[in-house]
Amino acid sequence: MVVRMRRNHSQTAKRRSHHALIGAQLATCECGTLRVSHRACPQCGKYNGRVVIDVVARAKRDQRRTQRKQKELRASGQSTETKEKEEAKA
Ligand SMILES: [Zn+2]
Predict the structure, then answer these.
(1) What is the C-alpha separation between 83 and 34, in angstroms, rounded?
(2) The model's pTM
(3) What one-character DSSP code corresponds to residue 42?
(4) Ligand 1 midpoint to CA 59 (Å)
(5) Its domain of life (predicted)?
(6) Residues lining ligand 1 (ion), CB within 5 A?
């Protein structure tokens, strides 16, 4: 690197002055839980006062998926330890 291109401490500090992280801006849903603004509420599935996500159906589907995965793991003969780890992840 040529000396002309070298960044001094002041220039580095000025660049990094914009690197601070800020917390997520959360809004309160009508159901009372915090949610990310301009996103549907994961708790009640509402956006802008109307239901856009069928929360009950989603929960049932997720439950069915986890049951099927566990069944496949048991069928493949993997140990119970790996199953428990998968459950802990989910
Ligand atoms: Zn909600």
Answers:
(1) 32
(2) 0.52
(3) T
(4) 15
(5) Bacteria
(6) 29, 31, 41, 43-44
